[in-house]
Amino acid sequence: MDTAQLEREINITTKAINQIRRTMAESSVPESYGLRVGVKGGGCSGLSYTLGFDEKAKDGDTVIEDSGVKLFIDGKSLFYISGMTLDFSDGLNGRGFVFDNPNASKTCGCGSSFGV
């Protein structure tokens, strides 16, 4: 898959972009860094999402940039999250990033664990 196709398949909402920027500023993370979005084994549904800041992309990463915010995604994780929308919620039901992943066949109540 080429980067242009991936940019259409992985969406970042404006609220998520704003929160990523806010978190970077509050944590003194340089603007040149990117947000690593990944998947690891574990959680109550079998797989869990991971988020963290990295200085630069690693070999084999896909880099997606939207409104000046960079996402770094390794190939294994991309398999599970292609088509996902990353959002941010600050409503009554809780505050945090929301992963709307069409590949997830089951999810848990916490919203950060899923299965395929």
How would you characterize the overall build of this protein?
It is built from 3 helices and 9 strands, in the order H-E-H-E-E-E-E-H-E-E-E-E. By secondary structure, it is an alpha+beta fold. It has one domain (3-110): HesB-like domain (Hypothetical Protein Aq_1857, Chain: A). The strands form 2 sheets. Strands 4-5-2-3-9-8 form a 6-stranded mixed beta sheet. It has a 3-stranded mixed beta sheet with strand order 1-6-7. It is globular and about 35 Å long. The model is unreliable at 1-8 (pLDDT under 50).
Low-confidence stretches: 1-8
Shape: globular
Query: What structural class do you assign from the helix and strand content?
Result: alpha+beta
What is the percentage of strand-forming residues? Answer: 35-45%
Order of helices and strands: HEHEEEEHEEEE
- SS summary, helix count: 3
Biggest sheet features = 6 strands, mixed
* CATH architecture descriptor text: Sandwich
Rg result: 14 Å
Helix content: 10-25%
Q: Report the mean per-residue pLDDT as an integer.
A: 83
Query: How many separate domains make up the residues?
Result: 1
- How many distinct beta strands? 9
Neighbour order of strands in the largest sheet = 4-5-2-3-9-8
Query: First CA to last CA: what distance?
Result: 21 Å
Going by CATH, the homologous superfamily would be HesB-like domain
CATH topology: Hypothetical Protein Aq_1857, Chain: A
Classified by CATH, the class is Mainly Beta
